[in-house]
Amino acid sequence: MRPLFRRLRGVAPLVGMVALVICPARAQVPLVKTQAPGFYRMMLGDFEITALNDGVVAYPVSTLTGATPEQITSGLAEMRLTAPVNMSYNAFLINTGTRLNLIDTGTGGTFAESPFFRGAGRLLANLRAAGYRPEQVDDILITHIGPDHVGGLTHGANRAFPHAMVRAARSEVDVYLDPAKAAAAIAAAPDKEQAKAWFQFQERLLAPYVKEGKFRNIDADGTIVPGVRSLATHGHTPGHTSFIVESKGQTMIVLGDLVHWGAVQFAYPSASTSFDSDPASATAQRQRVFQMAADGDYWVAGAHLAFPGVGHIRAGEGRYFWIPATYTIPR
Ligand SMILES: [Zn+2]
After folding, report:
1. What is the distance in A from the centroid of ligand 1 to the CA of 197?
2. Cα(222) to centroid(ligand 1), Å
3. Which of 12, 89, 134, 185 is deepest in the core (most CB within 10 A)?
4. How far is the CA of 91 from the centre of ligand 1 (A)?
5. How many whole angstroms from 50 Cα to the centroid of ligand 1?
6. What's the gap in Å between 212 CA and the centre of ligand 1?
7. 17 C-alpha vs ligand 1 centroid, how far in Å?
8. Is residue 264 within 8 Å of residue 64, measured between CB atoms?
């Protein structure tokens, strides 16, 4: 006797046609078009890491510099991407069990009219969706003064994280916190009005923390808070800083903005972006940290790698490869 599925195979199309006639399609259902909350959880030793998404913004290829058109085309094709490319804005929450550290704060919804920030500003909603509250954050570690990294520090005139100590490299923030240095920088800027507006914006973000004694400079590489070390990676900005998180023999390097265009910059690390203030230094730091992560087989977390932006870097064939994390549920 033929197996049941073979006997049914012949009549299946007929059954389908009859079903269509008897059971017409239901009323149309609207497309939902929302995504799951933007958080992703993983363990690093005893630490719980939560990647938080602030938004996704389409970036034109014109922001990529130092790469030939052929390199850009081949890099995007390798990742099945076409321009403009969706770029994630990610921050990372580290619960050590005794302290809650947040690396970067997203845009805070600032500059929402700019194409580079439209639709961003979701970090706080995603932090809450992840089971945390802003007032629980003990320390905020800033990779650099970029609007997509510090824009979320305040809510109007108030601190968005009322109990947090903000920590950032002195070489990054001095120009914003020292009135004489700020005045000199504005005077030297080609567009003084734009520079003034930018400095006033930074003042609004940092001053509420400074005033309450909730700001500390990072002066040298070393332990910033238990389990987290700073690593100067200047280039994207003058005081750009990466962070190394370690627990139970496991290590994660939080890159900051060492890489924006993963599809191109892992294959061609000498490619930079128009946002790099010193492209040569940014490139040198990118290659140094890529190699460090590959050699140590460390976890890597990138502010602009496709959410959740965590994975590993492999070196080989004269280039680097990005290996995204496999989805997991912490136990
Ligand atoms: Zn950035």
Report:
1. 19
2. 23
3. 89
4. 10
5. 18
6. 27
7. 54
8. yes
Q: State the maximum Cα–Cα separation within the chain, in Å, rounded to a whole number.
A: 93
- Predicted pLDDT at 11: 53
Residue appearing with tokens 């580290």: 94
Which residues have a Cβ under 8 Å from the Cβ of 120 and sit 6 or more positions away?
54, 55, 56, 57, 89, 106, 107, 109, 112, 148
Instruction: Judge contact between 140 and 166, C-beta under 8 A.
Output: yes
Q: Ligand 1 (ion): which residues have CB within 5 A?
A: 146, 148, 257
Say what the pTM is: 0.91
Residue 3 has what pLDDT?
56
Q: How far is the CA of 58 from the centre of ligand 1 (A)?
A: 13
Map out the domains of the chain as residue ranges.
Answer: 39-324
47 CA distance to ligand 1 middle (Å): 25
Cα–ligand 1 centroid distance for 12 (angstroms): 55
Is pLDDT of 15 > 60? no
Average pLDDT over residues 126-154: 97
d(CA 205, CA 159): 8
Among 55, 57, 42, which residue's Cα sits nearest to residue 93? 42
- Does position 192 have pLDDT exceeding 60, yes or no? yes
In terms of CATH, what superfamily is 39-324? Ribonuclease Z/Hydroxyacylglutathione hydrolase-like (3.60.15.10)
Instruction: Please give the mean pLDDT across all residues of the chain.
Output: 92
Contact between 186 and 192 (Cβ < 8 Å): yes
